[in-house]
Amino acid sequence: MARPRIKDVARHAGVSEKTVSNVINDYAHVSDRTRQVVREAIEHLGYRVNLAGRHLRKGRTGIIALVVPELDIPYFAELARHVIREAEERSLTVLIHQSGADRDHELAALAGFGSTFVDGIILSPLALTADDLRDRTGFPPTVLLGELLEEGADHVAIDNESAAREATRHLIGLGRRTILAVGGRDDSGLGTAQARTRGYRAALAEAGIAYDPAALLPVGSFRMPDGARAVARALAQGARPDALLCLNDQLALGALRALHEHGVSVPGDVAVIGFDDVEGGRFSVPTLSTVAPDKAAVAKVAVQLLQHRIEEATAPDGAVPGVQAQDRIVAHRLVLRESTQGHERR
Q1: Does residue 318 have a pLDDT over 70?
Q2: What pLDDT score does 346 carry?
Q3: What pLDDT shows up at residue 20?
């Protein structure tokens, strides 16, 4: 059976093809009765909108790219799910690309992969510099995620410094004074780890606790084995923390394993808190306290911003009003579970 076309819908509904097109595109000047008749015809015939044709008529492909460092990091996998859901509601298809936190890969993504098959890019950069981002002439519209902020670029993130300060304050409020930062980085970089470390240090200063650079436990990457190795190494070297601020949940889950293997009770001896609120932390033993970014809001705002930039870039001059680059901070919350709960020290 031939696939129904727009003229078949028009004939079945007893209206013009233009009216069917107006209903499909949700134009306001169609009467409710006509809209209902056309929608019933569409449903009856099983008509499907040719999205590719619609996008191409507007000079677009209907494809956006989401570029993340590592897909098997649960935070990015969960974020990708939200981005796909938001894009589908706008009839957009998402191409997912893994950069491996490699500068060349991130530059290729920023340039649209050397092609015109993506309308825009949502990019979570780790290796790019501000200079890399400064001149994007001729590149597709781009929205940045995370801490790497460049003036003139749309940007979506949580307030990582404030979130880390809040998490560290919570640990201090439990009476913990020897708090190690797993994955902490005390350099002048603009990344997420540096922002969270600044928040950690600010909370210590507020509480009158001296900062010790040795309390930062460096990691090669933000995965469970790295967290386990960092904590095991610190314990073997004689560290006796009473709390761990882990800069993501993967590090925290690895830390829990290392503490267990060394006979350290959580939260009795050491309270542990992470970042990202990934699913695994809700099923660990003990369950993991964490800073939960609103991942759905990150995805929603990023897709909305990107869609506006795409419309701005492909519309006739002045048809879509331009707006200044947006720096959007979305909400986060502290989720308290067994790894910090119920064991206060005074």
Answers
A1: no
A2: 41
A3: 81
Amino acid at 190: L
Within 13 A of 309's CA, how many CA atoms are on the CB side? 25
| Contact by Cβ (8 Å): 172, 179 | yes
* Contact criterion met (CB below 8 Å) for 92 and 62: yes
* Mean pLDDT lowest among 4-18, 196-210, 222-236, 328-342: 4-18
Q: Alpha-carbon distance 95 to 84, whole Å?
A: 9
CB 306 within 8 A of CB 120: yes
Contacts of 47 (CB under 8 A, 6+ apart): 4, 5, 6, 8, 9, 41
The CA-based angle 302-306-311, given to 5 degrees, is 155
Place of tokens 């809001």: 297
d(CA 245, CA 21): 56
- Residue where the block lists tokens 């801490």: 147
**Cβ-count burial 170-194 (b if 16+ within 10 Å, e if not):** bbbebebbebbbbbbbbeeeebbbb
Which residues sit opposite 68 in a β-bridge?
98
In terms of Cα–Cα distance, which of 190, 87, 182, 81 is closest to 130?
190
Q: The dihedral of CA 186, 187, 193, 194: what is its sign?
A: positive
Whether the bond into 125 is cis, omega within 30 of 0: no
Query: Degrees (nearest 5) of the Cα angle 38, 43, 47?
Result: 90
Helix, strand or coil, per DSSP, at residue 246 = strand
**pLDDT-derived band of residue 148, with 50, 70 and 90 as boundaries?**
low
* Residue 241: cis peptide before it, omega within 30 degrees of 0: no
Return all residues near 333 (Cβ < 8 A) that are at least 6 apart: 291, 292, 294
Q: Which residues does 87 contact at the CB level (< 8 Å), separation at least 6?
A: 64, 93, 94, 303
Per 3-state DSSP, the chain is made up of helix, strand and coil in percentages (nearest 5) of 45, 15, 40
Sign of the alpha-carbon torsion through 138, 143, 145, 148: positive
